[in-house]
Design brief:
- By secondary structure, the protein is mainly alpha-helical.
- It has five helices and two strands.
- The radius of gyration is 14 Å and the shape is globular.
């Protein structure tokens, strides 16, 4: 599986790169051969969630520090432990 993005990091920046509504498991074919399969992805997200992601994309221009990345790593390590004790 790949981490498929509705709005890519190149367009949405770091705020959307880890946003849990913006990242979902995608097979190789959807993510690579179909370029993310954005039409289907957007339909599955729903109009309201897709619009929220575009709103965030248009507002955020921040860059992350090393500390920001380390905090995000810790966050997902904790989540993994909750799911897979």
């Amino acid at each position: 599986m790949h981490a498929g993005h509705f709005i890519s990091k190149a367009i949405g920046g770091i705020a959307l790169y880890f946003h849990e509504d913006n990242v979902h498991a995608q097979c190789y074919n959807c993510n690579i051969n179909l370029g993310g399969n954005h039409y289907i992805y957007g339909k599955e997200l729903g109009e309201e969630r897709a619009e929220e992601l575009y709103r965030i994309k248009n507002q955020v221009t921040e860059k992350w520090s090393e500390e920001d990345y380390l905090e995000k790593i810790e966050h997902y390590e904790r989540k993994n432990k909750e799911i897979l004790p």
